[in-house]
């Protein structure tokens, strides 16, 4: 049966972390259908996350086509045996509904998320990670124990060197997922006093916050850039540890094998987005009845105190980091 599967289409249009979380599934698909060609449809802004993936035949970009009809026509002509929709939203549903082939769709836990966020009924205690939930979309697909993957071309070299580098990723798309700026500064100076050198990472939207933080930490280096993900990943690999929020760069670090200390605020690991099969430390405030207040993050704290992050002081985080650093 597997030999009859010649072409597979996988769809995940956004965003960075979600796309990196598909890589264990791509690896498993290639192992199961070893002779097949696997294509991936995404947005061009996330090209670096998937372009060099060795399990893929071709990466297609949603924006390349003037309209959805043109895209669907191209996909129809490729004669795929089946499509795996790991986005499962309005756009992806419109695409796959016009493909006369077998369809597998990622099942979202929308009801469970709603109950946990709004009523604090937790049906996700025995939670599954997002790669595990992606894999469940496809019958008899089994993931191995490896983590995420991000393939870096050999011509991209790190810009930094040293043995005591600690990376900071202070950005996130949503305010309530961001540890306080002044806390990063205080933690950075604590780590600097203990002999570590701090390196700041971020994309285009993080440049300003990285500038402010790096200017206040002794000896810090700011490597935030205009969304050059592959350069960021190459530089991350030089770090002993990455301190980050629940963000796409958290998954980037794990995808290149760097241990992470992830600070979770308004979100919780039960949503499935915790560091996947990697060396990691999750730091969170479990004393609050208002957590989680969102499964994706908010632009402000609905309770106006922001204690999910505010009570995780630099002293608390530093103690956990030092203990963790002794183990890695």
Keyword list:
six-stranded parallel β-sheet; Rossmann fold; 32% helix; five-stranded parallel β-sheet; alpha/beta
Brief rundown of the structure:
The chain has 328 residues and is α/β, with parallel strands linked by helices.
Describe this protein's structure:
- There is one protein chain.
- The chain folds into 2 domains: about 1-135, Glycogen Phosphorylase B (Rossmann fold); about 165-325, Rossmann fold.
- About 30% of the residues lie in helices and about 15% in strands.
- It is built from 13 helices and 11 strands.
- The strands form 2 sheets. It has a 6-stranded parallel β-sheet, with helices on both faces.
- Helix 8 (about 180-195) packs across helix 13.
- The longest helix has 13 residues, at about 180-195.
- It is globular, with a radius of gyration of 20 Å.
- The termini are far apart.
- The mean pLDDT is about 95.
